[in-house]
Amino acid sequence: MGLKRPILKHIAHKRGIPHSTIHIWIQSQEGIILQQRSKNKDTYPLFWDVSVAGHIDFNEAPKVAALREAKEELGIDLKIDQLIKIGTFYEAHYHPRSRILDREFKTVFYYNYNGSIKDLNLQKEEVEAIQTVELNDLIKSIKSNNPYKMVKHKREYYEHVISQLS
Predict the structure, then answer these.
(1) Can you name the CATH fold of 9-165?
(2) Which of 7, 15, 65, 112 has its CB surrounded by the most CB atoms within 10 Å?
(3) Minimal CA–CA distance to 50: which of 148, 144, 143, 121?
(4) Hey, is 60 helix, strand or coil?
(5) Which residues, including other chains, have CB under 8 Å from residue 68's CB and lie 6 or more apart?
């Protein structure tokens, strides 16, 4: 479930109001899809992150938000019955540059995509680029930020995601 009452995302961030988001880790034929965040993002610009991420709208179910965000960010139509929930996590991060206090309840999904990343249509306002990685390279990037500079999610988040992708 999304927010209890409607609130704009920038107000939630400015006031540090907890809100709900979705994450989708997508496994394609080529590997795990990573999304490079747009250079214009307020938080973690040009960092590599989960395949799809976004805020859940007021009264929107997490799976419905996941479908919407996947369509918006990657131009991909996911099948709702093939989204596999792998957990829910709370994280709070303060971003001094943009003065954002981001307090999120993340509902995290896994999705097995049978297509190629060449078929995806990126939303340039949100996504700078995409790349596929093997699980071992993802693990190395999370631990060392090499070769991919990753968004700084909590260790427990990444450990759980990796255990589910293995």
Answers:
(1) Nucleoside Triphosphate Pyrophosphohydrolase (3.90.79)
(2) 65
(3) 148
(4) coil
(5) 54, 57, 60
> Could you give the count of Cα atoms lying within 13 Å of 97 in the half-sphere of its Cβ?
6
Contact criterion met (CB below 8 Å) for 65 and 22: yes
pTM of the model: 0.92
What is the SS3 assignment for 141? Answer: helix
Residue-wise pLDDT for 26-54, tens only, equals: 999 999 999 999 999 989 999 999 999 99
Kind plus residue range of the DSSP H or E element containing 94: strand 84-95
AA identity, residue 81: D
Which runs of consecutive H residues, i.e. helices, occur in the chain?
A: 9-15, 62-74, 135-144, 155-165
N-terminal to C-terminal alpha carbon distance within the chain: 28
Q: Taking a C-beta distance cutoff of 8 angstroms, is the pair 38, 54 a contact? A: no
